Amino acid sequence: MPSSKSTLALLGLFISGCAVGPDFQRPDSGLPATWSFSKRKAAPAANSADLVRWWRRFHDAELNSLVEQAVDSNLDVQQAAARLRQVRAQRQAAASSFWPSLDSESADARLAAAAAALDGTRLSMAAEVALTYCQLRSIQDQNAVARRNLITQQRSAEITHERRDAGFASDLDVANADALVANTKAQIPRLETAARQSANAIVVLLGRPPGQVPAMLSEVRPVPTTSSAIPTGIPSDLLRRRPDIRSAEANAHAATARIGVAVADLFPKFSLNGSLNQQSAKLSDWLSPSARVTSYGPSFNWALFQGGALQANIRMQQALRDEAVLAYRKTVLVALQEVEDAMIASSNERKRRAALTEAVSANRIAVELSVKLYTAGQTDFINVLNAQRSLLQSESEFTLSNLALATDLIALYKALGGGW
Q1: What's the Rg (C-alpha) of the chain?
Q2: At what angle do helices 100-165 and 307-375 cross, to 10 degrees?
Q3: CA–CA dist 142, 267 (Å, integer)
Q4: What is the pLDDT of residue 8?
């Protein structure tokens, strides 16, 4: 029987050889040096502090409050936090085992992936609350536009009725005026429904039952936006900021570590711990004290005759590692696309909104002039009708442009990683 010193020496030899399998290196993502949309102009420098609490850059106190409540109380966030606690407990169990060099690296990587997933859930939740909040404000604005135009249209209809009664207008003019009023009036209930549904969606995102809408959501406010430049930084910043990229990298790391675990199964294993086994031929005796066999001291295990299965497992783990690396590269490509798309969309939407500002101003003048000329009998009512339709459309488009710009900015902050 070998001495305890020789046993420990042999055990140390096997432990020293347990660090098997490939070392993990971050896969080559092929990131460009700069954004294609900003080659002519250097992108603002970016760091995590620039993007932490990015929603505050919209300068809306209600938005700030809602997002910060959701980040803590949203049920999806709480589920992700629970999953992180599960993985952390698994990591602690792996670290406390007798063979930590085999499983602790994979457990560390899984823990990093779970932490990144929690960050990703928080980021998605912040963006979802901000987007839904902006949609609510846009719907409220559209409702205000419809009501404001309805008042103008009702006044024009009254004038048309008066002129018809005086013999200066036709029944066709009256019918057209009444139809325009009715069509605009029909939009209001639909907008009120959409506003209440958006408010309920926000409440649910906060982890509360629908119907418990805070008073601040019922108050009409403009769609929040920001004029400050967004610190996009350079593409390589995404590797440390984007939670999904960090999660994909951690998954690739874990898959690489599992190759080492599979390779280690080819080697014999020692244990210095005692073991408690059950030995009984009858099920009725299985729980009896005599059926329990206790052993102490070192034990030896070597799956010598499972070489084919072990080699197949190694090949499977290598294929899983390859799949995880490809998933990582795809995640990086999608992240690049999301940033580029959001940058282009926000830039062009600003141009569109500027043009719509001019259109709204011109249409307001056209409505005012057409009503004056019609009242004086110097133009047909069709010109009043067209001017009022154009004004309603341009004001509605301007409101939707404000929402589109806010949506593009939220998408850009999310694509950049949002500070988590």
Answers
A1: 34
A2: 20
A3: 71
A4: 45
* The model scores a pTM over 0.85: no
Long-range contact pairs involving 272-280 (C-beta distance under 8 Å, separation at least 24): 272/11, 272/98, 272/297, 272/298, 273/98, 275/299
Give every CB contact of residue 331 below 8 A, 6+ residues apart in sequence: 242, 244, 245, 248
More confident residue, 151 or 53: 151
Per-residue pLDDT, 299: 57
Per-residue pLDDT averaged across 160-179, rounded?
94
Amino acid at 12: G
pLDDT higher than threshold 50 for residue 202: yes
**Domain spans in the chain, listed from the N-terminal domain onward:** 47-269+304-416
Q: Which residue has the tokens 């992180």?
A: 84
pLDDT in tens, 329-373: 999 999 999 999 999 999 999 999 999 999 999 999 999 999 999
Q: Name the fold adopted by 47-269+304-416.
A: Outer membrane efflux proteins (OEP) (1.20.1600)
